[in-house]
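Structural prep section.
Before we set up the soaks we want a predicted structure of the protein with magnesium ion in place, mainly to decide which crystallisation condition to try first. Input record follows.
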Amino acid sequence: MLAVQDLTVRYGARLALDAVSFTVEPGRLMGIIGPNGAGKSTLIRAIMGLTPIDRGQVMLLGTPVFQIRERVAYVPQRSGIDWDFPALVKEVVMMGVTPYLGWLGRYKTEHYQRVEQALERVSMGEFAERRIGELSGGQQQRVFIARSLVQEAQLYLFDEPFVGVDSVTEQAILRLFEQLRDAGKSVLIVNHDLGRVIERYDDILMLRGKVIAWGARSRIWTQENLNRTYLGPVALV
Ligand code: ADP
Ligand code: MG
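Run finished without errors. Recording the tokens verbatim:
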């Protein structure tokens, strides 16, 4: 259902992704792992159509992804978000509804209810009127997950969602990811470290500028693949 084929991205002369190909089925949780500079964020941004691609294509449900962007929910790496943004929590979540507004662009009661329900689902109901910048890292992640829930996407992209998050919140976030997976969504999670969360992923993509290995975790998780992914500096030319 998500099919990435021959995806190649350059920043000027520098090759960041080299002919990356893989697929993700509905109802799967895939971890994207690799060292710093491996191109994980670039891959997520290229799938979203936020980074120009040199070659290749990204298809979702048989359609080029840029034509159905509203079916993709994306939670960027925390360092990519402007945390001084003066928005309230409820306003951030409301942004997830925007693709579904009519041509007058008015919010309806139903939309406010969906925002409230989504905040309840991530246990952030009490924080609706707070400024997003005042929250802890884990709370901010949950708000962005709530935004992606109201969006009713088919594909979910989370870039380093566990950075700066305590272990209780980490477990809560993992359960939310599993609920999305069990509802038939495709969920991609970027992780640069190799903590215990890895055991919760169905599939793994090991990335180092190019695909080192991908597929069912039980098959991919070998010392040899890990060495090829993590040892030595990342150098693609
Ligand atoms: P990761 O998320 O795996 O750490 P990135 O996708 O952020 O890796 O970066 C991959 C490579 O591309 C790195 O060498 C990085 O310095 C480079 N890069 C990322 N974004 C840009 C950009 N906007 N302009 C130039 N180079 C970039
Ligand atoms: Mg990154």
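Observations: The longest helix spans residues 167-182.
Flagged for discussion at group meeting.
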